[in-house]
Amino acid sequence: MPLAVSIDRISKRFANHQAVRDLSLQIPTGMVYGLLGPNGAGKTTTIRMILDVIEPDAGSIQILGAPNGQPGVVDRVGYLPEERGLYRRMTVRRVLLFLAQLKGVPPVEAARRIDAWLERLQLTTPERDWGAARVEELSRGMQQKVQFIGALVHDPEVIILDEPFSALDPINAQALKDIILELKHAGKTVIFSTHLMESAERLCDAVCIIAQGTKLVDGTLAEVRRAHGVQQVALALDGGARDRVARVLEDRTLVTRVDDSNQVIDVDLAPNADPQRLLRALLDAGAIVQRFELVQPSLHRVFVDRVSALQPNGDSMGGAHA
Amino acid sequence: MRKLWIVAQREFMERIRSRWFIVSTVLVPGLLGLILFIPLYFTSRAVPSTDMARITILDATGSGLGTQVAAKLDGGIAGDTAARVIAVAPAALAAAESSATRDVISGARKGYLALGPALWPKPDVRYAGSNATSTVDMARLQRIVHDELIATRLRSAGMDPHQVDALTALDMQMSTERLSARGRGGSGELSILVAFFVAFVLYMTIFFYGQIVLRGVMEEKQTRVAETVVSSVRPDTLLFGKILGVGGVAGAQLIISAIISAIFIANRGPILARMGVTAPVVALPHVAPVTAVLLVVYFVLGYIIYSALFAAIGSMVSSEQDAQQIQMPVAMLLIITALFIQPVTFTPEGRLGEVLSFIPFSSPIIMPLRMSLIQIPAWRVALSLGVLIVGCWVSVWVAARIYRTGLLMYGKRPSPREILRWIRASR
């Protein structure tokens, strides 16, 4: 599969801290990709380097197979920065026309697309055409919508959203989620950074967790969970044969940890242990198995384990600025 | 290149549309009109006041000089409020003066003219009064006393009084005209006025539009729109586009102002007549096309050097107060240059003007000023332009480096050391 973004061993050092250290990423096209990390992990710096806003000290970045510094390459990318803002005194249509023209959309085509987007996001209603209003007259929620349009109006193949869900009201968050999925179905690549694991887990095909400017793990959601090493089984048994079952669960080649919560026994499988072998051993022991479910660790757990392993004192906030 | 054009176009269009553009475009020619017409109006209206008829003349000459002066002062204008002539003995002059002083202080009289006893070799003539600062009145008084002294001397030398009157009735005013290698044109005074005006407009325009660039950059940074824009264009392009766009606005404004002013100037005769000024139409100084072109070149370069620095400052700061403080060094360069406009106007050939013409921060204002006053050898103009172009290049280069780092940097104001690091660092 061709790569939407390929990052090859980039580093960036600011005056008194290393923002990104030897980071490599391969982001295939047509994916929703999550860039996860605590605050100050280097997510924004990485995104700025992808967009060629700042240059890496070392390493190189390719977008859709071309170096990102090559003219016209970043025009194929749409960007929604974390800190949003527009020219306050310009009218909405003129701001959007300006942003579209900067990305190389001819004015007439841009005007057509802007009108379509304004209608779709309910910024032109029978009562009022907000496209003719100045940006400063709009509510915050409306300004956010205008900003989405600005990032998408040139129909980019790669869309980068920096913390898109922060400071969004629930309705706009829902609208954004719908747009992200629609873009994916249209074959676009959506990359977004977040520190909210729930939204990442629900939306992403693949993720990368970074902290302190270094990649901790990346891959598809399944790969990341598998790579986390811990496989869990949720087990429920119906009475009898408890002694022999207990002996099976003490087999350290199969099981590392058992957490009996009466109704459900949570079992951490030993590394490389085959869950089928555990099931057979339980049945051989005469257990009546009511439930035997392989449970993937949540992204949240992966994230917390990985990041706190890096910072033994448990301070997952990091000290540096993005 | 295309993106530079789009950025510049946005700057230009958004500013042209705004209300202040229209207001200030009308204001500048209005100011020009005031500067050109008002002095003419007042000069033509500067008939001596009737104040001079309300003075006391203390005449200790014993020759009737005081009466002669009073008759001339009346001049048929003042009617019955004639100057009061008091003949005093030389010894009593001091006492008479102190009593006249009291009259002036109490407001009963405007002032007093003391004519000392000696007519020869050096007459002793003094005036004291509440209107002593009125140059028109003082000049008239001085002339009248001077003329009457000569007449009195002639009479005392035995000349026929009628003959004396005929010979001393002299009304002369010297007209002044500027002569340069390009030919003659305009009065000397007026060419100083025009040169001064040119320098002042240059100063105002560069300062004003530099401030606009600064505010524009600050706005982009504070609203965070900069981050969205620099994901599409390089910071350098955004910076140059802004300078170009705002420069276009300045150009448009100056051109409109120039056209309106030209219409005014071409019709200044009728306009002045309408204002009731009957003074002859003064020929304006002739400006050679080469000088005009050089003037534009100096303006453009001066605008670039300062607006680049102002843009860099706008990118450094996150608040209005910081902007006020940090821009001081750059603003001072301009203000100090403006302070030199006056001395250089009066001695355009002096060492000061010479030196300031080779400093890139002052030459865009001082050189056009000197060029509209005196002939400057071509090689000096070329050298001054060369230094200015190098200065522009350096200032734009430094500004671009500060700008691209500063634009996305928030929080506390950077220290000078940090700024130096930004200049050295890559993107």
Model description:
The complex is a heterodimer of chains A (322) and B (427). Chain A is built from 10 helices and 14 strands. Chain A has helices spanning 43-50, 92-102, 107-120, 140-152, 170-185, 197-203, 221-227, 242-249, 275-284, 299-310; strands spanning 3-14, 17-28, 32-36, 58-63, 66-67, 77-80, 158-162, 189-194, 206-211, 214-220, 231-237, 255-260, 265-269, 289-295. Chain A has 2 domains: 3-225, Rossmann fold (3-Layer(aba) Sandwich), CATH 3.40.50.300; 229-295, Alpha-Beta Plaits. In chain A, helix 2 packs across helix 3 (107-120) and helix 2 (92-102) packs parallel to helix 4 (140-152). A 6-stranded mixed sheet of chain A has the order 6-7-8-3-9-10, sandwiched between helices. Chain A has a 4-stranded antiparallel sheet with strand order 2-1-4-5, covered by helices on one side. Chain A has 322 residues and is of the alpha/beta class. Helix content of chain A is 33%, strand content 28%. With 427 residues, chain B is mostly helical. Chain B has 2 domains: 2-42 and 186-424, no CATH class; 50-168, D-Maltodextrin-Binding Protein, domain 2. Chain B has helices at residues 2-17, 19-45, 65-74, 93-106, 135-156, 161-168, 188-222, 225-230, 235-266, 268-274, 289-316, 320-326, 328-339, 341-346, 351-356, 363-371, 378-406, 416-424; strands at residues 55-59, 84-87, 111-115, 125-129, 179-180, 183-184. In chain B, the strands form 2 sheets. Chain B has a 4-stranded mixed sheet, sandwiched between helices. In chain B, strand 5 and strand 6 (183-184) form a beta hairpin. In chain B, helix 1 (2-17) packs across helix 9. The longest helix of chain B is centred in the middle third of the chain and has 35 residues, at 188-222. Chain B is elongated. Chain B starts with a helix and ends with a helix. The A-B interface holds A 15, 48, 51-55, 57, 74-75, 77, 79, 81, 83-90, 94, 98-99, 101-104, 147, 150-151 and B 2-3, 6-7, 10, 14, 219-220, 222-225, 227-235, 408, 418, 421, 426-427.
